[in-house]
User: What shape does this take?
Amino acid sequence: MQFIDLAKQQARIHDRLYARIEAVLSHGNYIMGPEITELETCLCDFTGASNCIACASGTDALLLALLAWGVGPGDAIFVPPFTFFATAEVPALLGATPVFVDVDPVTFNMCPSLLQKAIDAIQQQDASIYPLPRDALERPLKPRVVVPVDLFGQAADYSSLLPIARRHGLLVLEDAAQAFGGQYNSQRTCALGCDAAVTSFFPAKPLGCYGDGGAVFTDDVGLADLIRSLRVHGKGKDKYDNIRLGINGRLDTLQAAILLAKMEIFPSEIAMRQQVAAWYEKHLQDIKGLTLPTLARGVYSVWAQYCITLPENKRDSTVELLRQRGIPTNIYYPRPQHCLAVFRDLGYAPEDMPAALHASRAILALPFHPYLDEDSVHTVATALRGALL
Ligand SMILES: Cc1ncc(COP(=O)(O)O)c(C=O)c1O
Assistant: This one.
């Protein structure tokens, strides 16, 4: 059994995929070819966002947005501790301080009431209100940006997070790297009213290319233009007219062509993902000692991962038993961000973020992709039942 089966998808789109790739090979515009604008238009139509800037990865998408906002030393960037490293890495790379806000123990997304506490703690430089990074106590930090993550395909609680951010004049950057194609209150992710949103086209993502890729979305035309400049070394009129410092953050034309082929079947794949999630729920719901993923009200998940929660002391043995039965699993994420060596200087203790700490010890991702059949889901369920006896 595959954890994610990209070969089945490739077989389904074989002809249109090869036609798309051949078109690029024949026009030869490998850098910023016509497929880039075509993809950006297609992704705007799909999400409802007014501007899309395709770029080299989800990490670059985060970087481009934060660079455009001039994020740097002295800025507090609020991020969840239970996410992929890039969410906290990029603010830190720019010299800003990641301020961790623990996640909701049920959805694993940033907890709005803790965001409020973290903002209060930063503003009052008082770690008794909420655990703070060490440098926030040494000098006042300016609260600048909140980066909620739509973990495992489920949008964060924007109805609560956005008003808090607005009240405090914070920008909101939706990290939808795992949630492209999902919805919140009937709006697509990347178009949920945040100041900007980013996604990733890493191959394993719901919409993945055959390499690295990403995109930034925003309704702010000025911000979109600035990001387009930053994407190509801070270009002005042309690429030799450099008017600011930027990066080489372009998406390859070939990757855009591949994504365009995949977009034709993406809506049907999203529907297939719902079916697989429903089969998992049907076959796992009566297994004792296992907690199924829970969706918050208004969320339509794209199910980037199907993660169950196990008793902490049963996870290793469960992984091993499933492995023996030929069932691959993954652990996202075995270490919460505030516990990583790279962030040691921030001075957080593991218990400062109890929900993230527990999730990192209890979560297990099961095989999941649109082409998984019910028999395979049943096989996983049988193995889990045996493991948790
Ligand atoms: C939440 C989150 N943010 C950012 C990224 C970075 O995306 P990329 O790997 O395309 O740079 C990822 C990728 O796994 C992610 O899951």
Notes: The first strand starts at residue 51 and ends at 55. Residues 6-102+110-263 form a domain with the Aspartate Aminotransferase; domain 2 fold (CATH 3.40.640.10). DSSP finds 14 helices and twelve strands in the chain.
